[in-house]
Amino acid sequence: MEVKKLRIAMLGLGSVGSKVVELLVKNTERMYQMTGVEIEIVYGLVRSFDEEDKQKLAKKFHFQLTDSLDHILNDETIDVVVELIGRVHPAKEYIVRALEAKKHVVTANKDLLAQYAVELLPLAYQNGVTLGYEASVAGGIPIVHPLKTQFATDQIESIRGILNGTTNFILTKMLTEALSYEAALTLAQELGFAESDPTNDVEGIDAAYKVMILAQLAFHSYPKFEDVDVKGLTTIQPSQLAVAKEFGYKIKLLGEVRALKDQLSLRVTPCLVAMDNPLAQIDNETNALLIKSTQIGETFISGPGAGAAPTATSVLADLQALILKKELGSSNQYPQAFYENTTYSFLKSAPKEKFGIVMKKAKATQKFTNDQLADIQKIGHTTFLEENYEWLVTNPLSSEALTALLESLTKMGTVIGSIPFID
Amino acid sequence: MEVKKLRIAMLGLGSVGSKVVELLVKNTERMYQMTGVEIEIVYGLVRSFDEEDKQKLAKKFHFQLTDSLDHILNDETIDVVVELIGRVHPAKEYIVRALEAKKHVVTANKDLLAQYAVELLPLAYQNGVTLGYEASVAGGIPIVHPLKTQFATDQIESIRGILNGTTNFILTKMLTEALSYEAALTLAQELGFAESDPTNDVEGIDAAYKVMILAQLAFHSYPKFEDVDVKGLTTIQPSQLAVAKEFGYKIKLLGEVRALKDQLSLRVTPCLVAMDNPLAQIDNETNALLIKSTQIGETFISGPGAGAAPTATSVLADLQALILKKELGSSNQYPQAFYENTTYSFLKSAPKEKFGIVMKKAKATQKFTNDQLADIQKIGHTTFLEENYEWLVTNPLSSEALTALLESLTKMGTVIGSIPFID
């Protein structure tokens, strides 16, 4: 079988870039098995050859460092340019030149896509190449591709999301630990969730760029930054969060794009979110999107919105989509299914007068299990419809041990069921 | 510009099939604008020409009814066969013949994909066509495509999901209304969430098929039905649900596929799910999946798992994916962004002695808004760190009305902020 190759040049070898390199090399064999295409990293663009960590990376993963974009673009064997420099300049000029040289481009650059997709997408189209940007919105959450396929034939009514992990972390800490905005920001900076200059995050600018990209994907509209009504969270006080909670709401910094008749409403703003809205459940640095559409109804998706590994995985997903022109192959890595021993919980009813019996005798059940000790990890009792119930949870058990334990418990009273559990 | 066509034959014109027809016709123009390809429904396969509703549908949407699969497969202008007959036979034979005739196939048939993907996917590959089955797992939730791209280069550790809406509805009603299993099932049947013969749902068989498909996508493994450890929910009692809740868990019927060293664990079972696990928040007929993977971490997605419109939208998504070989076009349907008047909530602090003042005077603020009445919809007070706070919520206001209201409130005390809210 002929080995097709996909040859890649990396622009930007920072935390996401080097993770992309590492994961691509690690996944070369798997991606080949899935697609019949072998990915090869050929170049890494650097500003200077002095950077030792980049030299090490290039040496370890067998690619060539170059300080010349021309060198990359003139190499006709290069299929894809992966841009992970970030911000608008010179990333935009580099991408324009790469597209004009008929290279596919994959990027995580939200600032750029938000502002220049209107220019870059037609340029890619005219040159017969693809511009992939799954990583530009909500890091590791698959949202760009689903909006191009799953929701493309539906009418999207609104997308609301927690699109910035830094501010969600700050709001969470302000609520759960009654920290001031300043103290929560400092904590976020110490933990690496906020940059030393947090302006883009806390003023809602980062989320506004994502709102612009979502508007492009959901409504084929190319809003300007000025079209987004942007409010950050710098004026939010812990008392507001506490009062809102009392009142049944959480305050979240939401990015929103909504269709209103023939117009779009685009905004980023702190917002009261009802506790039974799934967005209210999303805490710390997690991102989430709630999509309302006419045919499907409500779709909710949450996951990591940033971080080198999730973002790099979205970059790889674009490469995978690029080469995936046929169904997955059928390599059979896991030929055998297997039933794991699992943690079981017992729900046991006991007559009122015996209340507490199970609890006392629970430890004794250990001797009834042959090959494995049933370690009682939790035990308790409750009342439902004037009946008493006792329950206990064990360590993971083999099915033999479970059967033996159930038998021994049955001697003590009525076992109404046993059931696995997950945290 | 040349108009490319994608010509379609429908096998099956039931509730999903007729919805697919309706949505395809409705979206022809949009899909053309996005992809440059025009979709045309050419045939509908029927067992007999006597079915009046199918004759009506064909007439309304201008396609031809035929009782001959040969007629469809011999028509070289047909590109795609959409199979929505359901169950294994004769759907499998039809799909095999369609693939052999080099037609792309899109299907929602989970029974078939679960058991015969191992045979059908290579057949599609050998014939250079695509087999799309986004609708086969979790209805309107995008999961098949994301598993082929976003997660394809990640290592999936586990997928756990609420994969059957009928049983989730039953469990929800058993908990919230303390109904017996039988009463909850009857209610589900009355509301159309359960079939008259509910065996496939309540015994976990439907969920097991979905687990098999998830295992294929996530692990390129082709388990047999016997490889799945399947338990249904027919023995669950309301007391178990109530006791589990007391104990901090909800009981959900979960489908699971997990990687354990070199083996897979596949099961469907009622399971205790901790309340802070997002799966515990999914009630009624909604479906959801929690994907754990090495690079991305945790991704959660929820939405409608069944229903004609969501399922039909997933079928359309497969067609969209089939023709989407380039980026989206740039039709500009919504040229102007717009800031909607929105419901505002006020968080107001008041000194202890004035407690209740705002509440009394709230109605009076109406006169201060010029162009619009500020109707007070909710009002209340609470205490935080020994300070008293009062809050109120209004109807949607114009920004002028909002400013006027804020001014009037400021005269009565310290307004600490105003913030939009969503339910």
TrEMBL record, chains A, B:
Pathway: Amino-acid biosynthesis; L-methionine biosynthesis via de novo pathway; L-homoserine from L-aspartate: step 3/3; Amino-acid biosynthesis; L-threonine biosynthesis; L-threonine from L-aspartate: step 3/5
Lineage start: Bacteria, Bacillati, Bacillota, Bacilli, Lactobacillales
Catalytic activity: L-homoserine + NADP(+) = L-aspartate 4-semialdehyde + NADPH + H(+)
Organism name: Enterococcus camelliae
Keyword hit for Amino-acid biosynthesis: yes
The name this protein goes by in its record: Homoserine dehydrogenase
Domain Homoserine dehydrogenase catalytic: 142-319
InterPro entries assigned: Asp/hSer_DH_NAD-bd (IPR005106), HDH (IPR016204), HDH_cat (IPR001342), HDH_CS (IPR019811), NAD(P)-bd_dom_sf (IPR036291)
PROSITE patterns: HOMOSER_DHGENASE
NADP listed as a keyword: yes
Family to which the UniProt record says this protein belongs: Belongs to the homoserine dehydrogenase family.
All copies of domain Aspartate/homoserine dehydrogenase NAD-binding, residue ranges: 12-133
UniProt GO MF annotations: homoserine dehydrogenase activity
